[in-house]
Amino acid sequence: MATTEWNRRHILSLEDFTAAEYDIILQTAASFREVLTRRTRKVPTLQGRLITNMFFEPSTRTRSSFELAAKRLSADVLNFAPGTSSLTKGETILDTAKTYLAMGTDMMVVRHQQSGVPQTIAWELDRLGAQVGVLNAGDGLHAHPSQALLDLFTIAQHFDPDAPRTALLAGKKIAIVGDIVHSRVARSNLWSLTACGADVHLAAPPTLVSKPFADAFASESGSLSVHWQLEPALENADIVMTLRLQKERMSSNLLPSLREYHQQFGITRDRLALCQPHARIMHPGPVNRGVELSSEVMDDARISLVQTQVTSGVAVRMALLYLMGGGKSVA
Ligand code: NCD
User: What distance in angstroms lies between residue 321's CA and the mean position of ligand 1's atoms?
Assistant: First the structure.
């Protein structure tokens, strides 16, 4: 397994990731996907290592997915829950991180509602000379690298199940629909998809995406367009990524109503007729059924990759923990 080119201790944002690094992740995740189909779905790779999940914000699939990935790699796992922790007694986040450092944590997986918290923890650990990797599991509206990487794996695997690789993304039309401006998932996907040469089309009401927003992600490899209507983004699309309306992050009412949003931007079976015949729908979850996409589309396994994304998530997160841990042999 190719790990020689991997030299990141932390994974905080995908902003400066190269196609070669994405390929290492895809290839490593494909090996772990195979491990997860064995009768014993576990490898001793990170035996004796300690991984601490620090989720300061609610999460179902990301937290469980990281915990399961760590366990499948035979690591020990600590799960920090802010509600029952010393944070409620006034302890700072950095002191909490240092407490877990003193217990011998090798990697910290951090989610926080404020942008920049995982980066701040990583800086502090580096300053202390600790050899501890920090993985950003979602910070504010800034970044959610592991979600974008599992999305990339899901797409590449859809086009070639045997050899998922970045080259498969080149020239593919990928529509990203929904609350883009408040979405850390969209931001991270924009870095990865354009770096892999995809033709990305953003579609949302003008209150949820702007041209200056998209300009910030301009890249030499892929292309990026903004639409304030759904149809031009869907036309001949290979993949449609839908995003949850992030009501908790909207500072004021940015939409007339959810019903109106669904009428204009909701993905329904009829609308999918505009896409390529083989097109697939994705959503990072949690889904507002009947808002971002109809239940009929979401539950149709011939069209929806939503469950595959969850399954891919475990293999991709195993790959990330393995690479950050300076992994050796998988078998
Ligand atoms: C996303 C998140 O938390 O950023 N969900 C996830 O990680 N599966 C997207 C969202 O909350 O809408």
Answer: 20
**Domain 19-143+311-324 fold:** Rossmann fold (3.40.50)
User: What number does the ligand 1 atom closest to the CA of 62 have?
Assistant: 7
Nearest C-alpha to atom 12 of ligand 1 is from which residue?
244
pLDDT score for 263: 95
232: Cβ contacts below 8 Å, ≥ 6 apart: 201, 203
Ligand 1 probe mutation, 185, 248, 292, most atoms within 8 A of CB: 185
**Residue written as token pair 């926080």:** 112
pLDDT band at 327, cuts 50/70/90?
A: low
- 140 CB less than 6 Å from ligand 1? no
The yes-or-no answer to whether 19-143+311-324 and 145-306 have a common fold is: yes
- pLDDT of 251 reads 67
Best residue for ligand 1 mutational test, from 62, 109, 188 (most atoms within 8 Å of Cβ): 62
Which of the four CATH numbers 3.40.50.1370, 3.90.79.10, 3.50.50.60, 1.20.140.150 does domain 145-306 have?
A: 3.40.50.1370
Answer whether residue 331 shows pLDDT above 70. Answer: no
Is the CB of 184 inside a 6 Å radius of any atom of ligand 1? yes
Sheet holding 223-227, edge to edge: 223-227, 199-203, 173-177, 239-242, 280-282
3-state secondary structure of 150: helix
Distance 66 CA to ligand 1 centre (A): 14
Confidence at residue 330, expressed as pLDDT on a 0 to 100 scale:
44
Place of tokens 């007729």: 273
For the chain, the domains span: 19-143+311-324, 145-306
For residue 57, the model assigns a pLDDT of 92
303 Cβ contact partners less than 8 Å away, ≥ 6 residues apart: 272, 279, 280, 281, 297
